[in-house]
Amino acid sequence: MPVRFPEGIPNLPPTDSIKITDRHAIVRAGAEGAELVVRRWSWPGPTGKPVYNFRSEGRKFDSGRVLIIADGFYEFTDAPPVEGAPKKRPKRKWLFTMTGEPFFCIAGLLRTEPSVGEAYTMLTTSPGPDIAPYHNRQVVVLGRKDWAKWLNPAVPAGDVLRPAPAGTLKVTQVR
Length: 175
Hints:
The protein is mainly β. The protein has one domain (3-10, 21-80, 87-173): SOS response associated peptidase-like (hypothetical protein yedk fold), CATH 3.90.1680.10. The chain has 1 helix and 14 strands.
């Protein structure tokens, strides 16, 4: 998929982790095709808490569709109990990467908020078999064949937003 850089080619350093409110590269549909821009992850919700994940079920998403470029994402689970150890212990950290691909995209949504400007959130769905043992939701992971489809608002969201099939994601325990 050809991509334009309307704001110039960003000079983004490699990072181990993108944190809520950080700026990150996304791809959006522009008048002349796909455009790579850098925007903030999360917008302030009605209570002031950041909206960094957004449920996709039952929604159309007629505008604001974006691709969030990633080479992995993390999920966290409670550490198993250990006799004599403090009850509050660091959570286990799991890295999910796409099998056979150096990077992938996560379906996202871009909107403008007066207090932060343009910001994006990741869309979630029910977990596929690779994620279900670790979390009750998953971000919508898109393979290359779905990138252009997701950016096209004429394609029904339900045709693209679905759990990843078994074997799509490789899981590695980080902590």
